[in-house]
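Format notes (please read before filing issues)

Several people have asked whether sequences and C-alpha coordinates are stored in separate files. They are not. Every record keeps both together, in the order shown below: the sequence lines, then the C-alpha coordinate lines. Line labels are part of the format and must not be stripped during preprocessing.
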Amino acid sequence: MYKFYRLLTNICGSFIPLFLFHRKNIGKENERSISEKRTLSFSQERSPDLDILLWIHGASVGEAQSSLILIESLLDTYPKLNIMITTGTLTSAALMEKRLPERAFHQFCPLDHPKYVERFLNHWHPDAALWMESELWPNMLHELKKRNIPTTLINAHMSPKSFKMWSYFPSFSKETLSTFNKILCQNQADKVLFDSLGAEHSIVTDNIKYSATPLSFSHKYLSDILDITANRHIWLYASTHQDEEELACRVHERLKKRIPDLLTIIVPRHPERRNDIALACLSFPLKISFRGENKNLPSEDDDIYIADTLGELGLFYTLSPIACIGRSLSNDGGGGHNPIEAAQLGCAIIHGPNIQNLQDIYAQMKSKNACLEVKDEHALEETLHNLLTDDDICATLQRAALSFAKDKADVIKRIMKEISLQLDQK
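Then the structure lines:
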Protein backbone atom coordinates (compact mmCIF):
# COMPACT_ATOMS: atom_id res chain seq x y z
CA MET A 1 0.00 0.00 0.00
CA TYR A 2 2.85 2.41 0.77
CA LYS A 3 4.33 1.84 -2.70
CA PHE A 4 0.98 2.83 -4.22
CA TYR A 5 0.82 5.97 -2.03
CA ARG A 6 4.36 6.93 -3.02
CA LEU A 7 3.57 6.41 -6.71
CA LEU A 8 0.38 8.46 -6.40
CA THR A 9 2.15 11.39 -4.72
CA ASN A 10 4.87 11.27 -7.38
CA ILE A 11 2.26 11.44 -10.14
CA CYS A 12 0.47 14.33 -8.43
CA GLY A 13 3.73 16.27 -8.13
CA SER A 14 3.19 18.17 -11.37
CA PHE A 15 -0.08 19.60 -10.02
CA ILE A 16 1.41 20.90 -6.77
CA PRO A 17 2.57 24.28 -8.18
CA LEU A 18 -0.93 24.95 -9.54
CA PHE A 19 -2.47 23.98 -6.21
CA LEU A 20 -0.14 26.32 -4.30
CA PHE A 21 -0.67 29.12 -6.82
CA HIS A 22 -4.42 28.87 -6.24
CA ARG A 23 -3.89 29.02 -2.47
CA LYS A 24 -1.71 32.10 -2.92
CA ASN A 25 -4.47 33.81 -4.91
CA ILE A 26 -6.92 33.31 -2.05
CA GLY A 27 -4.46 34.52 0.58
CA LYS A 28 -3.46 31.17 2.09
CA GLU A 29 0.14 31.11 0.83
CA ASN A 30 2.91 33.58 0.05
CA GLU A 31 6.19 33.34 -1.86
CA ARG A 32 8.14 32.12 1.14
CA SER A 33 5.64 29.44 2.18
CA ILE A 34 5.39 28.08 -1.37
CA SER A 35 9.16 27.93 -1.76
CA GLU A 36 9.72 26.21 1.58
CA LYS A 37 6.84 23.76 1.12
CA ARG A 38 8.42 22.70 -2.17
CA THR A 39 11.88 22.70 -0.50
CA LEU A 40 13.19 25.14 -3.11
CA SER A 41 14.53 27.25 -0.24
CA PHE A 42 14.96 26.99 3.52
CA SER A 43 14.61 29.48 6.36
CA GLN A 44 18.33 29.15 7.13
CA GLU A 45 21.34 26.90 6.62
CA ARG A 46 21.99 23.86 8.82
CA SER A 47 24.77 25.49 10.81
CA PRO A 48 27.46 23.35 12.49
CA ASP A 49 26.66 25.41 15.61
CA LEU A 50 23.40 23.49 15.93
CA ASP A 51 24.86 20.76 18.15
CA ILE A 52 21.57 18.91 18.50
CA LEU A 53 18.64 19.80 16.24
CA LEU A 54 15.21 18.65 17.37
CA TRP A 55 12.41 18.96 14.84
CA ILE A 56 8.90 19.62 16.16
CA HIS A 57 6.03 19.50 13.68
CA GLY A 58 2.58 20.97 14.31
CA ALA A 59 0.21 21.60 11.43
CA SER A 60 -1.54 24.82 12.40
CA VAL A 61 -2.19 27.42 15.10
CA GLY A 62 -3.54 25.07 17.77
CA GLU A 63 -0.65 22.60 17.57
CA ALA A 64 1.89 25.43 17.31
CA GLN A 65 0.56 27.13 20.45
CA SER A 66 0.55 23.81 22.30
CA SER A 67 4.21 23.30 21.41
CA LEU A 68 5.42 26.54 23.01
CA ILE A 69 5.43 25.26 26.59
CA LEU A 70 7.21 22.10 25.37
CA ILE A 71 9.82 24.16 23.50
CA GLU A 72 10.55 26.28 26.57
CA SER A 73 10.87 23.21 28.81
CA LEU A 74 13.18 21.43 26.37
CA LEU A 75 15.48 24.43 25.90
CA ASP A 76 15.73 24.93 29.66
CA THR A 77 16.58 21.25 30.20
CA TYR A 78 19.07 20.84 27.33
CA PRO A 79 21.48 23.80 26.91
CA LYS A 80 22.94 22.43 23.65
CA LEU A 81 19.57 21.79 22.05
CA ASN A 82 18.23 23.78 19.10
CA ILE A 83 14.65 23.43 17.90
CA MET A 84 13.09 23.80 14.47
CA ILE A 85 9.30 23.95 14.45
CA THR A 86 7.42 23.43 11.21
CA THR A 87 3.83 24.43 10.50
CA GLY A 88 1.72 24.70 7.38
CA THR A 89 -0.33 27.92 7.67
CA LEU A 90 0.57 31.59 7.38
CA THR A 91 -1.22 32.34 10.66
CA SER A 92 0.77 29.77 12.61
CA ALA A 93 4.03 30.94 11.03
CA ALA A 94 3.37 34.55 12.05
CA LEU A 95 2.52 33.45 15.58
CA MET A 96 5.66 31.33 15.91
CA GLU A 97 7.97 34.02 14.63
CA LYS A 98 6.63 36.41 17.26
CA ARG A 99 6.79 34.01 20.20
CA LEU A 100 9.68 31.60 19.64
CA PRO A 101 12.58 31.96 22.12
CA GLU A 102 16.28 31.93 21.26
CA ARG A 103 17.62 28.63 19.88
CA ALA A 104 14.27 27.97 18.19
CA PHE A 105 13.19 28.92 14.68
CA HIS A 106 10.34 28.36 12.24
CA GLN A 107 10.28 26.64 8.86
CA PHE A 108 7.27 25.78 6.67
CA CYS A 109 6.77 22.02 6.52
CA PRO A 110 7.30 20.33 3.15
CA LEU A 111 4.38 18.79 1.33
CA ASP A 112 4.42 15.00 1.47
CA HIS A 113 6.03 14.45 -1.91
CA PRO A 114 9.00 12.02 -1.99
CA LYS A 115 11.44 14.55 -3.51
CA TYR A 116 10.44 17.31 -1.10
CA VAL A 117 10.78 14.95 1.87
CA GLU A 118 14.27 13.84 0.82
CA ARG A 119 15.50 17.40 0.20
CA PHE A 120 14.09 18.52 3.55
CA LEU A 121 15.83 15.80 5.54
CA ASN A 122 19.05 16.08 3.54
CA HIS A 123 19.20 19.77 4.40
CA TRP A 124 18.28 19.67 8.08
CA HIS A 125 19.52 16.26 9.31
CA PRO A 126 17.39 16.43 12.50
CA ASP A 127 18.69 14.35 15.40
CA ALA A 128 15.16 13.56 16.58
CA ALA A 129 11.59 14.48 15.69
CA LEU A 130 8.44 15.21 17.68
CA TRP A 131 5.13 15.31 15.81
CA MET A 132 2.06 16.93 17.33
CA GLU A 133 -1.45 15.45 17.57
CA SER A 134 -2.62 13.75 14.36
CA GLU A 135 -0.25 14.64 11.52
CA LEU A 136 0.51 11.32 9.79
CA TRP A 137 2.27 11.88 6.46
CA PRO A 138 3.42 8.47 5.10
CA ASN A 139 6.30 9.60 2.85
CA MET A 140 7.90 11.66 5.60
CA LEU A 141 7.36 9.01 8.27
CA HIS A 142 8.75 6.32 5.97
CA GLU A 143 11.88 8.36 5.36
CA LEU A 144 12.34 9.16 9.06
CA LYS A 145 12.20 5.44 9.82
CA LYS A 146 14.57 4.61 6.97
CA ARG A 147 17.12 7.08 8.38
CA ASN A 148 16.70 5.83 11.95
CA ILE A 149 15.70 9.26 13.24
CA PRO A 150 14.00 8.78 16.65
CA THR A 151 10.41 10.04 16.32
CA THR A 152 7.70 10.53 18.95
CA LEU A 153 4.04 11.44 18.43
CA ILE A 154 3.10 14.02 21.08
CA ASN A 155 -0.43 14.78 22.27
CA ALA A 156 -1.65 12.05 19.96
CA HIS A 157 -5.31 12.24 18.99
CA MET A 158 -7.37 10.09 16.63
CA SER A 159 -10.81 11.27 15.56
CA PRO A 160 -13.47 8.64 14.73
CA LYS A 161 -13.42 9.85 11.12
CA SER A 162 -9.63 9.42 10.83
CA PHE A 163 -9.78 6.05 12.55
CA LYS A 164 -12.38 4.81 10.07
CA MET A 165 -10.22 5.94 7.14
CA TRP A 166 -7.01 4.33 8.46
CA SER A 167 -8.93 1.14 9.34
CA TYR A 168 -9.49 0.46 5.64
CA PHE A 169 -5.72 -0.08 5.27
CA PRO A 170 -4.61 -2.06 8.37
CA SER A 171 -1.13 -3.08 7.18
CA PHE A 172 -0.44 0.43 5.86
CA SER A 173 -1.60 1.94 9.15
CA LYS A 174 0.60 -0.37 11.21
CA GLU A 175 3.62 0.33 9.00
CA THR A 176 3.07 4.11 9.25
CA LEU A 177 2.68 4.06 13.04
CA SER A 178 5.77 1.86 13.42
CA THR A 179 7.88 4.96 12.72
CA PHE A 180 7.11 6.28 16.19
CA ASN A 181 9.30 5.08 19.01
CA LYS A 182 6.55 6.24 21.34
CA ILE A 183 3.01 7.59 21.01
CA LEU A 184 1.91 9.85 23.87
CA CYS A 185 -1.91 9.91 23.78
CA GLN A 186 -4.27 12.59 25.06
CA ASN A 187 -6.59 10.06 26.71
CA GLN A 188 -7.44 6.37 27.01
CA ALA A 189 -9.91 6.49 24.11
CA ASP A 190 -7.14 7.75 21.80
CA LYS A 191 -4.81 5.00 23.01
CA VAL A 192 -7.42 2.33 22.22
CA LEU A 193 -7.78 3.65 18.67
CA PHE A 194 -4.04 3.86 18.04
CA ASP A 195 -3.53 0.38 19.46
CA SER A 196 -6.30 -0.93 17.22
CA LEU A 197 -4.38 0.41 14.22
CA GLY A 198 -1.22 -1.42 15.25
CA ALA A 199 0.62 1.04 17.50
CA GLU A 200 3.04 -0.82 19.74
CA HIS A 201 4.39 1.86 22.09
CA SER A 202 1.46 4.04 23.17
CA ILE A 203 0.83 5.49 26.63
CA VAL A 204 -1.56 8.11 28.04
CA THR A 205 0.04 11.36 29.23
CA ASP A 206 -3.04 13.66 29.01
CA ASN A 207 -3.40 16.79 26.86
CA ILE A 208 -0.44 19.16 26.63
CA LYS A 209 -2.86 22.06 26.15
CA TYR A 210 -3.46 21.93 29.91
CA SER A 211 0.15 22.97 30.52
CA ALA A 212 0.36 25.77 27.96
CA THR A 213 1.82 29.04 29.18
CA PRO A 214 -1.01 31.56 29.64
CA LEU A 215 -1.35 33.83 26.64
CA SER A 216 0.66 37.01 26.96
CA PHE A 217 -0.72 40.50 26.38
CA SER A 218 0.29 44.16 26.43
CA HIS A 219 -0.57 45.82 29.73
CA LYS A 220 -0.49 49.18 27.95
CA TYR A 221 -3.09 48.08 25.40
CA LEU A 222 -5.20 46.63 28.21
CA SER A 223 -5.06 49.91 30.10
CA ASP A 224 -5.93 51.88 26.96
CA ILE A 225 -9.02 49.76 26.26
CA LEU A 226 -10.10 49.69 29.91
CA ASP A 227 -10.11 53.49 29.99
CA ILE A 228 -12.81 53.41 27.31
CA THR A 229 -14.78 50.29 28.30
CA ALA A 230 -14.50 50.25 32.11
CA ASN A 231 -18.21 50.84 32.77
CA ARG A 232 -19.59 48.65 30.00
CA HIS A 233 -20.90 45.07 29.93
CA ILE A 234 -18.52 43.04 27.74
CA TRP A 235 -18.46 39.58 26.24
CA LEU A 236 -16.00 38.00 23.83
CA TYR A 237 -16.56 35.61 20.95
CA ALA A 238 -13.11 34.04 20.47
CA SER A 239 -11.63 32.21 17.46
CA THR A 240 -14.75 32.64 15.33
CA HIS A 241 -15.32 30.98 11.97
CA GLN A 242 -17.64 31.78 9.09
CA ASP A 243 -21.23 32.57 10.16
CA GLU A 244 -20.28 33.04 13.81
CA GLU A 245 -19.58 36.76 13.37
CA GLU A 246 -23.09 37.25 12.00
CA LEU A 247 -24.47 35.15 14.85
CA ALA A 248 -22.69 37.45 17.32
CA CYS A 249 -24.25 40.50 15.65
CA ARG A 250 -27.74 39.02 15.84
CA VAL A 251 -27.28 38.13 19.51
CA HIS A 252 -25.92 41.60 20.26
CA GLU A 253 -28.82 43.29 18.46
CA ARG A 254 -31.34 41.51 20.68
CA LEU A 255 -29.35 41.73 23.92
CA LYS A 256 -28.78 45.46 23.47
CA LYS A 257 -32.48 46.04 24.11
CA ARG A 258 -32.00 44.64 27.63
CA ILE A 259 -28.37 45.71 28.20
CA PRO A 260 -27.96 49.08 26.44
CA ASP A 261 -24.24 49.53 27.22
CA LEU A 262 -23.27 46.10 25.82
CA LEU A 263 -19.99 45.72 23.91
CA THR A 264 -19.38 42.55 21.88
CA ILE A 265 -15.76 41.77 20.99
CA ILE A 266 -15.07 39.35 18.14
CA VAL A 267 -11.63 37.78 17.58
CA PRO A 268 -11.71 35.82 14.31
CA ARG A 269 -9.63 32.67 14.11
CA HIS A 270 -8.27 33.79 10.74
CA PRO A 271 -7.80 37.59 10.57
CA GLU A 272 -7.28 37.43 6.80
CA ARG A 273 -11.06 36.94 6.55
CA ARG A 274 -11.54 40.59 7.59
CA ASN A 275 -13.08 41.64 4.26
CA ASP A 276 -15.69 38.88 4.37
CA ILE A 277 -16.37 39.63 8.04
CA ALA A 278 -16.82 43.32 7.29
CA LEU A 279 -19.24 42.54 4.46
CA ALA A 280 -21.31 40.29 6.75
CA CYS A 281 -21.32 42.49 9.86
CA LEU A 282 -21.77 45.89 8.30
CA SER A 283 -25.20 44.83 7.05
CA PHE A 284 -26.48 45.10 10.63
CA PRO A 285 -27.77 48.38 12.11
CA LEU A 286 -24.90 48.37 14.60
CA LYS A 287 -21.81 50.52 15.09
CA ILE A 288 -18.86 48.32 14.20
CA SER A 289 -15.12 49.03 14.31
CA PHE A 290 -12.00 47.01 13.48
CA ARG A 291 -8.81 46.99 15.54
CA GLY A 292 -6.56 46.55 12.50
CA GLU A 293 -2.79 46.61 12.38
CA ASN A 294 -2.84 50.19 13.75
CA LYS A 295 -4.32 48.81 17.02
CA ASN A 296 -7.34 51.08 16.82
CA LEU A 297 -9.27 51.38 20.09
CA PRO A 298 -13.03 50.88 20.33
CA SER A 299 -15.04 54.07 20.62
CA GLU A 300 -17.40 54.65 23.55
CA ASP A 301 -20.50 53.96 21.45
CA ASP A 302 -19.28 50.94 19.46
CA ASP A 303 -21.56 47.91 19.49
CA ILE A 304 -19.14 45.44 17.90
CA TYR A 305 -15.34 45.61 18.13
CA ILE A 306 -13.57 43.18 15.79
CA ALA A 307 -9.98 42.38 16.82
CA ASP A 308 -8.65 41.29 13.43
CA THR A 309 -5.04 40.98 14.62
CA LEU A 310 -2.67 38.14 15.43
CA GLY A 311 -1.37 37.27 18.87
CA GLU A 312 -3.76 39.40 20.92
CA LEU A 313 -6.23 36.82 22.15
CA GLY A 314 -4.67 36.96 25.62
CA LEU A 315 -5.44 40.68 25.78
CA PHE A 316 -9.13 40.14 25.11
CA TYR A 317 -9.47 37.11 27.39
CA THR A 318 -8.05 39.33 30.16
CA LEU A 319 -10.36 42.21 29.27
CA SER A 320 -13.58 40.23 29.00
CA PRO A 321 -15.15 38.35 31.93
CA ILE A 322 -17.03 36.03 29.54
CA ALA A 323 -15.74 34.12 26.52
CA CYS A 324 -17.70 32.05 24.03
CA ILE A 325 -15.28 29.69 22.25
CA GLY A 326 -15.58 29.69 18.47
CA ARG A 327 -16.24 27.00 15.88
CA SER A 328 -18.72 25.41 18.23
CA LEU A 329 -21.77 27.14 16.73
CA SER A 330 -20.51 27.56 13.17
CA ASN A 331 -22.35 26.14 10.16
CA ASP A 332 -19.31 24.22 8.88
CA GLY A 333 -19.87 21.28 11.23
CA GLY A 334 -17.75 22.84 13.93
CA GLY A 335 -15.20 20.99 15.99
CA GLY A 336 -14.43 23.54 18.66
CA HIS A 337 -11.29 25.35 19.78
CA ASN A 338 -9.17 25.18 22.91
CA PRO A 339 -10.95 26.57 26.01
CA ILE A 340 -7.94 26.22 28.33
CA GLU A 341 -6.42 29.55 27.26
CA ALA A 342 -9.61 31.32 28.36
CA ALA A 343 -9.76 29.34 31.61
CA GLN A 344 -6.16 30.22 32.49
CA LEU A 345 -7.04 33.92 32.26
CA GLY A 346 -10.15 33.60 34.41
CA CYS A 347 -12.97 33.78 31.86
CA ALA A 348 -16.44 32.35 32.35
CA ILE A 349 -16.54 29.92 29.41
CA ILE A 350 -19.45 29.23 27.06
CA HIS A 351 -19.43 26.94 24.03
CA GLY A 352 -21.82 25.48 21.50
CA PRO A 353 -22.58 21.78 20.88
CA ASN A 354 -20.08 21.15 18.06
CA ILE A 355 -16.92 20.42 20.05
CA GLN A 356 -16.02 17.00 18.69
CA ASN A 357 -12.33 17.85 18.17
CA LEU A 358 -11.87 18.59 21.89
CA GLN A 359 -14.59 16.43 23.38
CA ASP A 360 -12.41 15.08 26.18
CA ILE A 361 -11.31 18.51 27.42
CA TYR A 362 -14.84 19.87 27.45
CA ALA A 363 -16.17 16.72 29.15
CA GLN A 364 -13.62 17.08 31.93
CA MET A 365 -14.41 20.78 32.31
CA LYS A 366 -18.14 20.05 32.48
CA SER A 367 -17.54 17.50 35.23
CA LYS A 368 -16.05 20.34 37.30
CA ASN A 369 -18.78 22.87 36.32
CA ALA A 370 -16.05 24.88 34.60
CA CYS A 371 -17.94 25.67 31.38
CA LEU A 372 -21.49 26.03 30.05
CA GLU A 373 -22.82 24.49 26.83
CA VAL A 374 -25.49 26.31 24.82
CA LYS A 375 -27.40 24.46 22.10
CA ASP A 376 -28.06 27.41 19.76
CA GLU A 377 -27.88 31.18 19.45
CA HIS A 378 -31.05 31.80 21.47
CA ALA A 379 -29.63 29.75 24.33
CA LEU A 380 -26.42 31.73 23.96
CA GLU A 381 -28.38 34.96 24.26
CA GLU A 382 -30.10 33.90 27.47
CA THR A 383 -26.91 32.51 29.00
CA LEU A 384 -25.05 35.71 28.20
CA HIS A 385 -27.86 37.77 29.74
CA ASN A 386 -27.68 35.74 32.96
CA LEU A 387 -23.90 36.03 33.23
CA LEU A 388 -23.78 39.71 32.31
CA THR A 389 -26.46 40.72 34.79
CA ASP A 390 -25.62 38.44 37.73
CA ASP A 391 -22.08 38.95 39.07
CA ASP A 392 -22.29 35.99 41.46
CA ILE A 393 -23.17 33.47 38.74
CA CYS A 394 -20.44 34.82 36.48
CA ALA A 395 -17.81 34.81 39.25
CA THR A 396 -18.63 31.21 40.21
CA LEU A 397 -18.08 30.05 36.63
CA GLN A 398 -14.86 32.06 36.38
CA ARG A 399 -13.45 30.52 39.56
CA ALA A 400 -14.34 27.00 38.44
CA ALA A 401 -12.59 27.48 35.08
CA LEU A 402 -9.44 28.95 36.64
CA SER A 403 -9.31 26.20 39.27
CA PHE A 404 -9.66 23.52 36.60
CA ALA A 405 -6.79 25.03 34.56
CA LYS A 406 -4.48 25.18 37.59
CA ASP A 407 -5.22 21.60 38.63
CA LYS A 408 -4.23 20.32 35.17
CA ALA A 409 -1.06 22.35 34.69
CA ASP A 410 1.48 19.59 35.45
CA VAL A 411 0.84 17.50 32.31
CA ILE A 412 4.07 18.85 30.79
CA LYS A 413 6.07 17.02 33.47
CA ARG A 414 4.77 13.63 32.33
CA ILE A 415 5.41 14.44 28.68
CA MET A 416 8.93 15.74 29.39
CA LYS A 417 9.76 12.56 31.29
CA GLU A 418 8.94 10.44 28.23
CA ILE A 419 10.77 12.72 25.79
CA SER A 420 13.84 12.92 28.01
CA LEU A 421 14.29 9.16 27.83
CA GLN A 422 14.85 9.66 24.09
CA LEU A 423 16.93 12.86 24.15
CA ASP A 424 19.22 11.76 26.99
CA GLN A 425 20.73 9.27 24.57
CA LYS A 426 21.97 12.09 22.33
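For reference, the curators noted about this record: The longest helix spans residues 61-77. The mean pLDDT is 94.
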